[in-house]
């Protein structure tokens, strides 16, 4: 092997290593922010008693294979609908687009939704909602599914990172109207990434 080729391979290795470490730190920072939110008396959904006992969420090991590039297909002229929630409240959403991606060698499709209420607010005008269920529910994750927050993409692809999947507030407290993932957003696989349903 020539010195040049050897040098190139070494540089590629270290570049990949640095990228992986940067990604891990990014997800750890996200997890710390979520833990901080749940400890904050003004932001936490927890009761005062539970908040004072709360230490940290439990997460699956960070796995970059759950960060996927998805093909995004805009759904034009979608008919608004009332999304089921954990309460009698039924907020208006519309099916904004379809995403197609490959996870563990298998192709999946999910739908992303836009809240009619939130899109009227400047800070949420690009916000899309991705609720989903999978085979881990009621085992290692919350039985009613998890959520991922994403933004409207500029093109026809978007990144979906299941390492950032989080639980609805209803997993921890009563009195919230948490959207229930539509049946069409079920993934027939175990998504062992993101938040689990227990605390430590």
From TrEMBL:
Residues 1-20 form the signal peptide. It holds the Pfam family DUF1684. InterPro entries: DUF1684. It comes from the Bacteria. Keywords: Signal. This is DUF1684 domain-containing protein. It comes from Flammeovirga pectinis.
């Amino acid at each position: 092997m020539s010195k040049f080729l050897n040098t190139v391979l070494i540089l590629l290795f270290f570049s990949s290593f640095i990228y992986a470490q940067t990604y891990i730190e990014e997800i750890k920072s996200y997890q710390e922010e979520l833990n901080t939110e749940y400890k904050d008396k003004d932001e936490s959904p927890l009761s005062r008693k539970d908040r004072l006992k709360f230490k940290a969420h439990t997460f699956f090991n960070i796995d970059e294979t759950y960060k996927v590039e998805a093909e995004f297909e805009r759904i034009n002229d979608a008919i608004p609908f009332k999304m089921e929630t954990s309460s009698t409240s039924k907020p208006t959403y519309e099916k904004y687009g379809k995403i197609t991606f490959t996870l563990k060698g298998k192709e999946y499709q999910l739908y992303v939704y836009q809240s009619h209420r939130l899109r009227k607010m400047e800070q949420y005008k690009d916000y899309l909602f991705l609720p989903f269920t999978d085979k881990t529910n009621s085992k290692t994750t919350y039985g009613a599914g998890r959520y991922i927050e994403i933004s409207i993409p500029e093109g026809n692809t978007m990144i979906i990172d299941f390492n950032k999947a989080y639980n609805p507030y209803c997993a921890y407290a009563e009195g919230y109207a948490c959207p229930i993932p539509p049946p069409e957003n079920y993934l027939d696989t175990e998504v062992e990434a993101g938040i689990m349903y227990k605390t430590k």
